Amino acid sequence: MNLYKILPIFILASLFSMPGKAQKKVVQDSIKVFGNCIMCKRRIEASLFDVKGVKAVNWNVNTKNMFIAWRPDKVSIQEIHKIIAAVGHDTQKAKAPDSVYTELPFCCLYRDHDPHTAEERSKH
């Protein structure tokens, strides 16, 4: 009979002493990333391919929106913005350093012009 009193206490103590497992929650969002062309797309997406916690990324050349799925326990959204800015592309929350931006190919210089418009193409 004494065992029946001790067993529930032992079970409860075991449950509370187990380390809690972190949730592996994946967050999805869309952020604005500035660029002009398919080379920009490759550069933006490639900057995030090897980042731990980033599960999916797809930047749309026309809308300038990037779909991203990531695990916030591995990488923060602020870090994602900084990574993209570090390769030369402005986001809603981070500006690319001018020294990096000016080294982008001409067609990727989104701050000054969009070389893919008819007006810009006629200048060259």
Structural notes for this entry:
This protein has helices at residues 2-17, 38-49, 77-86, 98-101, 118-123, and strands at 27-32, 54-59, 65-70. The chain has 124 residues and is an alpha+beta fold. The chain has one domain: Alpha-Beta Plaits (2-Layer Sandwich), CATH 3.30.70. A 3-stranded antiparallel β-sheet has the order 1-3-2, with helices on one face. β2 (54-59) and β3 form a beta hairpin. It is elongated. The model has no long low-confidence stretch (mean pLDDT 84).
Number of domains as seen in the coordinates: 1
Beta-strand fraction estimate: 5-15%
Number of helices: 5
What coarse outline follows from CA principal-axis ratios?
Answer: elongated
* Structure classification: alpha+beta
For the largest beta-sheet, the strand count, sense and barrel status come to: 3 strands, antiparallel
Rg, Cα atoms, Å: 24 Å
**Mean pLDDT figure:** 84
Distance between the termini: 93 Å
Total strand segments:
3
Q: What is the helix/strand order? A: HEHEEHHH
CATH topology: Alpha-Beta Plaits
CATH architecture: 2-Layer Sandwich
Ranges where pLDDT stays below 50 over 5 or more residues in a row are none
Strand arrangement across the biggest beta sheet: 1-3-2
Helix fraction, binned, reads: 25-40%
CATH class category: Alpha Beta
